[in-house]
Specification:
mainly alpha
């Protein structure tokens, strides 16, 4: 098992800051577009505008959380990450993280954002390109090394080399 994990680690490069920013932007646009019908329905069906707005906000947050957690669970990525071929892996095993780790990772967005987004900016300076949410959950965001993929398995000798093209 350990040797297999090492081969998997050799197959990837860490996804850099700007790619992760763009991936997040794509994901937020998608969630925003999906939330528009919720806002319209709330506005048309609830007479009190303030209640409708509050309900739409709560449902929008729930939609966003569900969107991220379901896609992380199914694909270890959201559409924004998929554009770059990036995925979230367990930092030690280079396998799909457990749902518990995904939940911890999502909860890790809270301190990352509350600290003036320093937790997200951390990605730009961390050797493995991890934000605070990744550090909390024990995850990394990686992309396959160019030209190294074979039938879902990748091999190589540059484990953990940082991405230079960001």
């Amino acid at each position: 098992m350990r040797e297999e994990s090492h081969l998997d680690a050799d197959a990837y490069v860490f996804c850099g800051f700007w790619r992760r920013v763009l991936a997040s932007l794509v994901d937020n646009i998608i969630v925003g577009v999906l939330a528009i019908p919720i806002g319209l329905i709330m506005g048309l069906t609830i007479a009190n505008a303030e209640v409708a707005q509050n309900m739409a906000s709560v449902l929008g947050w729930i939609l966003g959380i569900a969107f991220v957690l379901v896609l992380w669970h199914l694909y270890a990525a959201t559409p924004g990450k998929m554009i770059f071929g990036a995925k979230i892996l367990d930092e030690k095993t280079y396998r799909r993280p457990t749902m518990g780790k995904f939940i911890i990772r999502y909860i890790g967005y809270i301190p990352s954002a509350l600290a003036l987004c320093i937790g997200f900016l951390w990605v730009a300076f961390d050797r493995k390109k991890r934000g605070w949410h990744d550090l909390m959950a024990g995850t990394v965001v990686v992309m396959p090394k160019p030209g190294r993929q074979t039938r879902g398995r990748v091999t190589g000798s540059d484990a953990g080399r940082e991405e230079k093209s960001d």
